[in-house]
Amino acid sequence: MIKVAVCGAYGKMGQEVCAAVEADEMTTLVAKIDIQGDAYRSIEEAKNACDIDVLVDFTQPKSIYENAKFCIKNGIKIVIGTTGLSDDEIEELKKLSSENNTGCLIAPNFSTGAVLMMMFSQMAAKYFDNAEIIELHHNQKKDAPSGTAIKTALMMSEAKETFKKGNCPETETIEGSRGGTSYSDIQIHSVRMPGYIASQEVIFGSSGQIFKIRHDSMDRKCYMGGVLMAVKHVFDKNDFVYGLENILK
């Protein structure tokens, strides 16, 4: 059995992860870590009390980097679902993972449908010179743009240097109205609204046509298959992975 701890166990995603870990025949929940309820108050406290193989982190952007460094340096394999890590932080975690021979998997999205959307967008990017991303989440999400949108743009950017071919010079009469500029000049627009869980639309355009790829999450249970896949991967492979698409079979 894979001994799993969940950090952020009493959050909405954390509760779903705990239930999924307890229900799976290959995993067992050995520790809940949170600032509320009957949980351990820190990863260090849980480590001192329990034997942990893999920690799943769904906490906050401000804490994930330090959480991940602690785990890797102390031989705890980690699956990261919290978004907000910078490119430099991801590179540092990759280095630490290798140096400490401790598995680390970072996934901006654990839904197989969302991951396929990202992969299809990467494929389509070869054939279009213009593209933008709209991501829509609930109004309690603290980081913008979403990790999924950032990862999608990064994957698309491998196809070409810019996705603003032919655009005229632009002037924003209201600052930010064109969204944020990401990799290869891909504009990302973030919507925060009660009623949404997580949605993303990638829009490609060329003369005479528009091509859209969209994914909508209506229930957090859709992420659990990917979370368990990630837990089993880092337990078996003990490597560094950025993006669930890299372990889809």
Q: How many DSSP-defined strands?
A: 11
The helix content, as a percent range, equals: 25-40%
Question: What Rg, in angstroms, do the CA atoms define?
Answer: 19 Å
Mean pLDDT: 95
Let me know the CATH homologous superfamily of the largest domain.
Answer: NAD(P)-binding Rossmann-like Domain
Coarse morphology:
elongated
Write down the CATH topology of the largest domain: Rossmann fold
Largest sheet: 6 strands, parallel
**What's the level 1 CATH class of the largest domain?**
Alpha Beta
Strand composition percent: 15-25%
- Return the domain count: 2
- The sequence of SSEs as H and E is EHEHEHEHEHEHEEEEHE
Which CATH architecture of the largest domain would you pick?
3-Layer(aba) Sandwich
Q: What's the tally of helices?
A: 7
Distance between the termini: 22 Å
Q: Gist?
A:
The protein is of the alpha/beta class and 249 residues long.
Task: Describe this protein's structure.
41% of the residues are buried. The protein has helices spanning 12-23, 43-49, 61-73, 87-100, 112-124, 147-157, 224-237, and strands at 2-7, 27-33, 54-57, 77-80, 104-106, 130-137, 180-181, 187-192, 198-206, 209-217, 240-242. It has 2 domains: 2-106 and 220-246, Rossmann fold (3-Layer(aba) Sandwich), CATH 3.40.50.720; 112-217, 2-Layer Sandwich (Dihydrodipicolinate Reductase, domain 2). The chain is built from 7 helices and 11 strands. It starts with a strand and ends in a 7-residue tail after the last strand. The protein is elongated, with a radius of gyration of 19 Å. The longest helix has 14 residues, at 87-100. Helix 1 crosses helix 7, helix 3 (61-73) packs parallel to helix 4 (87-100) and helix 5 (112-124) packs parallel to helix 6 (147-157). Helices cover 34% and strands 24% of the residues. The strands form 2 sheets. Strands 2-1-3-4-5-11 form a 6-stranded parallel beta sheet, with helices on both faces. It has a 5-stranded mixed beta sheet with strand order 7-8-6-9-10, with helices on one face. The chain is α/β, with parallel strands linked by helices and 249 residues long.
